[in-house]
UniProtKB/TrEMBL annotation, chains A, B:
Region of interest called Disordered, as start-end residue ranges on this chain: 318-339
Keywords, ordered alphabetically: ATP-binding, Kinase, Magnesium, Metal-binding, Nucleotide-binding, Thiamine biosynthesis, Transferase
Keyword Lipoprotein annotated: no
Protein name, per record: Thiamine-monophosphate kinase
Enzyme Commission designation: 2.7.4.16
Family, similarity comment: Belongs to the thiamine-monophosphate kinase family.
Binding site for Mg(2+) 3: 45, 90, 242
Miscellaneous note of the record: Reaction mechanism of ThiL seems to utilize a direct, inline transfer of the gamma-phosphate of ATP to TMP rather than a phosphorylated enzyme intermediate.
Residues holding Mg(2+) 5: 245
Name of the gene: thiL
UniProt binding sites for substrate: 68, 281, 328
Membrane spanning stretches: none
The PurM-like N-terminal domain, residue ranges: 43-155
SUPFAM superfamilies: PurM C-terminal domain-like (SSF56042), PurM N-terminal domain-like (SSF55326)
Length: 339, 339
């Protein structure tokens, strides 16, 4: 049938429900990285991944719409990127090199398939940027009222012992690689300015803000220093941790696990030490090193480890107790019913 | 203050939101099995699991309230059990012995912590029953409007090649281990009788039904023959699959991957061959074996593999095409807004 030259075709987007699981997967799978360690990829009951040193590191993390992100602020590409980044960072924090991810998605039926393609692109590009050779080897796709991304990530220790939280020793240098407080600053801007007149998250306001301030992009799609994890292990790091809940809170975990005092120097925490201490979700790396070590990669000293000398294991700043840092709960002010 | 002797204390249950993440985890973690292959368990950024033959098998699966289960019909213990069972079965279907699970939960804030303890008990007892020595090595806990259970499971191939879907050869015996159609029959009973007068899922009706009919318990907490997966691999199985979508549909996957005809014998499919062909979620094992093999464990012959002789790869029953089996979508009649 001939169509009038003036017609404009506006096709509704193909949704997950409309396309069905198999057709949706057929569009997603080719976009995912195969990975250097993948012996059998997606398509069977399970995948097979190489574990050259006879062990593998594994971590899992859920991102839930509402408590963990808002689609008005994060694009589907951002979601895929951040889901990969936060898990790759946990693998790196053990001193392991990431080898593979599996990704399970639960999405509303009306989600456009194109959104899941973009999410797959974010996963792929995040792996390429932070852990080249890391593959997405399997997954699952379900329908849910609540958009949920579950990533499980694997790593190879390359023959080394895992770097745990409990190995910091008096005399060690405390060091950090990666940003401190940028993600929290970006989120604070979104809460204040990425909303409409009624305080509801607004995609247009967020996009305008993102063009002006790079911390917005850092919050929704951070680039943690993944390669510095294995580098720290090779250099002899005595403890290491992914900074997901803010420096003060996370350093406290290492202090308690290692039964030491961790003293941070405010002069080494950048322009805004309070923000560096409190802000979560940078997924930077915190590590302690013996005093004679040349700090590897992007690590810079931020303090020292001391004996607790009869006191409680704790974090101090310039030798004094800081104010009590609360738990990092970025969306605590947020009602589930909003936006 | 003295209380009158007649007072009855009815404490509201402690919820996840009330207890907070750390206190909730402190109550769950001690209930989980450590596992024989666990080198480092929960508590750090990631866990470490042994992979003795230098590879590991991995599969992931989401269970979402609504599309996959209803709390009126499944107890939290059932949920934990089924989440473990369905993933252990996918590992077994590669011919691997399960070694570990990680479990990520997204739950409404008002969920009682006791429910998560029961879910942990279900995970533990399912591992003990189907895969002794398999541990739960890590996880994540988030708040969500939609109860979601994401399990990732790992297995050890013990030096063997993975048993894939594409290895069935003309002349092979087709065999099955485990129930066929019981889970679907149980779900059908729940849809018809486990509801109140308005058709809404009803816990009391479902509990009464469960006491009368064992297929209800099989649907909400099946016990697939996990040990028969490695046994089939040792016996020389040429292909294998977890039966999650019904025998006809899943056999078709093997037929297409292997480019063969799979002929099933209705006389070998029990009292109700139609139910055996169509019913999903038994998580039984489908496998093909060379003709001279003594079938291991609980496997029994249900048909043969033939050359496709110029025709399409397909499933036949007694030599003829069966009616087209639809995809297994157990809750397809279900509105998300109901119960």
């Amino acid at each position: 049938m001939e169509r009038p030259a003036t017609s404009v075709d506006v096709e509704p987007p193909v949704t997950v429900q409309g396309a069905g699981e198999l057709a949706t997967l057929a569009r997603i799978l080719p976009r995912l990285p195969r990975g250097d360690r993948t012996e059998l990829g997606p398509g069977d009951d399970a995948a097979v991944v190489a574990a050259p040193d006879g062990r593998f590191v594994v971590t899992t993390d859920l991102m839930v719409h509402g408590p963990d992100f808002r689609l008005a602020w994060s694009t589907p590409y951002d979601l895929g990127w951040k889901a990969a980044a936060s898990n790759l960072s946990d693998v790196a924090a053990m001193g392991a090199a990431p080898t593979a991810l599996v990704v399970a998605l639960a999405v509303p039926g009306e989600t456009p398939v194109a959104d899941l393609e973009a999410l797959a692109d974010g996963l792929r590009e995040a792996c390429a940027a932070m852990a080249p050779g890391c593959g997405v080897v399997g997954g699952d796709l379900s329908v849910s009222a609540t958009l949920t991304v579950a990533v499980t990530a694997f790593g190879d220790l390359e023959g080394r012992a895992p770097v745990r939280r409990d190995g910091a020793r008096a005399g060690d240098v405390v060091a950090v690689s990666g940003a401190l407080g940028r993600s929290a600053r970006g989120l604070d801007l979104l809460f204040r300015l990425g909303v409409d007149h009624e305080g509801v998250p607004d995609a247009r306001a967020a996009a305008a803000l993102r063009r002006r301030d790079p911390d917005i992009g850092w919050h929704v799609a951070p680039t943690p220093p993944v390669a510095d994890g294995p580098a720290a292990a090779r250099a002899g790091a005595t403890s290491m941790l992914d900074l997901s809940d803010g420096l003060a809170l996370d350093a406290g975990r290492v202090a308690r696990a290692s039964d030491v005092v961790i003293d941070l120097s405010s002069s080494l925490l950048g322009d805004d030490p309070a923000a560096a201490l409190a802000g979560g979700e940078d997924h930077s790396l915190f590590a302690t090193f013996p005093p004679d070590v040349d700090l590897p990669g992007g690590f810079r000293a931020v303090g020292h480890v001391h004996d607790r000398a009869g006191g409680a294991p704790r974090v101090t700043v310039d030798g004094s107790e800081p104010g009590e840092p609360g738990g990092w709960d970025p969306y605590r002010l947020w009602s589930g019913a909003r936006g």
